[in-house]
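Dear colleague,

Following up on yesterday's call, I've attached the two folding results inline so they're easy to grep. Please treat them as preliminary; we haven't cross-checked anything against experimental data yet. The first protein's sequence and structure tokens come first.
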Amino acid sequence: MADITWGFIGLGNIGYPMAINLRKKMPKSYKLIIHDVNSSAMNRFAEQVHAMRDRNAADYPYCFDIADNARQVAEKSTVLITCLPSPSIVQDVYNSILDHGTLPQLADERLFIDCSTIDPVSSREVGDMLDKTNCGHFVDAPMSGGVVGACAGTLSFMFGSPENLKEQVESALLLMGKSARRMGDQGAGVCSKLANNYILSINNIAAAEALNMARQWGLDLRALSDLIKSSTGRCWPIDVNNPAPGVDESAPASNGYAPGGTVNIIKKDLELAMAGAKASGALLPLAEKAHEVYRAVEEAYSGKDLSVVYQWLQNHA
């Protein structure tokens, strides 16, 4: 492939380390153009890349540029990756790209990869909008792994794209993560992410309720957790993110509920799943009660790990 320019828009808590890993691992002759509404994030990125360049000047130029707006990134980029916090912001960014007419033609067809976690309707609306302009292909590719995975380059991506783009999308995403799985056509990525996180949102509450109940009964929570790990109640909140302090010393609960994934994020993802379910006519009988719980927990423990539901239950006995 000829030397090309890639773009990255959205240097938030997850997008920033994704962009750093992308610049480290993409072919050294490629240029990366970045943009974010937060100028300090772009300046910090520039400082970090300059430091990498100074350490490796003989072997790696680390070419990059800073754009004033999203349209500038899109005009020059063959591959454009976005990582943004909400459906409305995703729509605003892509609208701003297309507001000034047709994008200039490049040697290769553009590929737009949106790694944001948004609802299926919004994702498909953006995809349809880009399809109508014939300016490139839009792929939805949310990820799992959070800030820790983004920094380590171990994110797991799930994406929706035409079959013929599968290898191209995989190769791009694997510059920022350890796995990338095509789930179907455009929209299948966000649907898969929200289905997974809906299960997590329910299991997270159930695990906290069960361990709080067991504590009231006087059970040894570490022994019970070990039992559950080999029984039918096995789930990620017990295996990896045990909500009871002291059961797993590496879990957020044993470290002041310092977040892996915050209660704010799981509440947002639950809301996105509920919106997607409503649009498709799917019934989610547990969703409203779970949402009620997360609203209350967020109010009391905003910014804490999602497993803090356990502490909230103790305080509301």
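Below is the second protein, in the same order (sequence, then structure):
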Amino acid sequence: MKIEDFGREAKLFILENDNGLRLSVTNFGARIVKIEVPAEQDGGYRNVSLACASAEEYLELDPYVGASIVPVAGRISGARVEISGKEYALTENEPGRTLHGGVNTANLRNWEWECNGKDEVLFTTVLEDGFNGFPGRIEVGVRYCLSASNDVHVDYFARSDKDTIFNPTNHVYFNLSGQFFESIGQHQLKIAADYYVPLGEDNLPLGEFAAVDGTPFDFREFALFETGFSSDHEQTNLVKGYDHPWKLSRQETAVEVWSPDKKVGLEVSTDQPAAVIYTYNFPQEKLAAYHGVFSMECQGFPNACNLEGFGSIFLAAGEEFSSQTRYRLKW
């Protein structure tokens, strides 16, 4: 493992396995920076994860890219939540909503770090009681591990001293061609999901699951991202692509993606019930093109705290939260 300076007193950790797969992570926002695959004919590397060159550049361009999103990923309606019979007002950072935990969140701070051998890094931080309105002093950790079988493991865990809600994710973006200024439209996508979650005009879930049958959300067999990009479906028109949760029907190999040249594949396994796929519909054009990357956010359902039938993101005082997601690279 190599450790380098990354700006703003942050560090960059570069892990490499015996197959030549490289994973770069930083304690600034506990984020994934690069995933480099030795897939080129000349023996060169293809970086498939959207990345910035420094902590300063993330701040300037897009601080969510690759970051750990805590305590709650996605949007919370009304910027309010009721927990154990008490209503809490949360920081409103979109009109009438809380997005990705509010303002000045943990994606903007340097987490504590610890290296465990040559293939594992642990990042930890504390969200103080009342942080952006969320109750409880929440101790948060994320463990990144690069395995010999070309798996990037992303494991979250947390504990709070008060009843609270917790629903983390990682905001990594992929382009398996490594060409971030070209559309992902010709990437092949397969999702083990019979249902997806439609959105309203405010980008919040409507509170129902819709069957994928006969829609551009049906990826039960391999299909192109372009299926949705060129569709006239009201949901893809609403967000100019995809920004939707799919209800996963299995944990193992829940999502598969292949680059157009078939040289790089991605298999995603997770113990979380949803995968939110966002296709960079409103791009930071210095980083990537419109539809130039896709996120793969494995998490509980967005706004589950305010919707019936969307599962629970409640975390009781003293109980430990844990989640495991695995990104397997193939070439």
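For the second protein, one point worth flagging: The chain has one domain: 2-330.

Best wishes,
A.L.
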